[in-house]
Amino acid sequence: MNKPHAHSPHRGLLLMVVAPSGVGKTSLTRRLVADHNDLHLSISATTRDPRPGEHDGRDYHFVTKDKFKAMIDQDAFLEWAEVYGNYYGSPRPPIMEALERGESALFDIDFQGAMKVHAQAKEDSVLVYILPPSLAEMSRRLHTRSQDSEEVIHRRLSRAKDEVADWERFDYVILNEDFDRAYADLAHIYHAERLKRARNPWIGDLVGDLLKEEI
Ligand code: 5GP
After folding, report:
1. Which end of the chain is more exposed for a tag (fewer CB within 10 A), N or C?
2. Ligand 1: lining residues by beta carbon, under 6 Å
3. d(CA 215, CA 208)
4. Ligand 1: which of 110, 116, 120, 159 to mutate, most ligand atoms within 8 Å of CB?
5. Is 192 annotated as a binding residue?
6. 207 is in an annotated binding site
7. Pairing mode, if any, of strands 86-91 and 104-107?
8. For residue 31, how far is its CA from the centre of ligand 1 (angstroms)?
9. Cα–Cα distance between 45 and 64 in angstroms, integer?
């Protein structure tokens, strides 16, 4: 699936995947990154505590509020936001380095973060929203994973409702009813976006050569 192409894209993209919690976004994005070695997950910094099973540097960079504020002052974030009382931000350097290599970055961030990145990099960003089949199903999944209190679940559901109403701001909307189907949709989006003419300047050179050929 991920053989290097003879003419790889010269311009990477910023793939932003947004979904309410409990819609399976993490499984989808982790698999997309595992299947594509030219796509790098942007590991966010956060001031929230690690959940059981989460590792520093893999799931998040877990930092103190002071460290986070210092990073804001150093302009070290492409975007940052406060979500449910904690700070989250996308560190700028690894993303810029990936783009410079012609590779891409995937952002597992919230709605406001995705819109902020998009506002700064309209040509390079691709916005994908993942829809749950219903709010009832989303509520069921949140209860099954039992990570959140009733109050937090209620907040997540009402926030999802507000976000879903803004679905037209996204380039693509995927329904995650069946994981394999949703994954195939996400992978197809990534592949097609990489093939866009504007991301493949080598095509101009090739066409130039073709036009010079005698027939
Ligand atoms: P959680 O605490 O459940 O891991 O994440 C809470 C919310 O913060 C999720 O919607 C997640 O997508 C969002 N988030 C994670 N990293 C970032 C980031 O770097 N920037 C922004 N704006 N949101 C983030």
Report:
1. C
2. 21, 44, 48, 79, 81, 83, 88-90, 108-110, 112-113
3. 14
4. 110
5. no
6. no
7. unpaired
8. 18
9. 10
Q: How far apart are CA 25 and CA 19, in angstroms?
A: 6
Residue matched to tokens 């819609």: 23
Is 213 contained in some domain? no
Q: Quick check: is 5 in a domain? A: no
For residue 212, the model assigns a pLDDT of 97
- pLDDT class for 75, splitting at 50, 70, 90? very high
70, amino acid identity: A
Q: What is the pTM of this model?
A: 0.87
Mutate to test the pocket of ligand 1, among 42, 71, 88 (most ligand atoms within 8 A of CB): 88
Residue 178: CATH number of its domain: 3.40.50.300
- Residue 46 inside a domain? The answer is yes
Distance (Å) of CA 135 to CA 21, 186, 189: 11, 21, 25
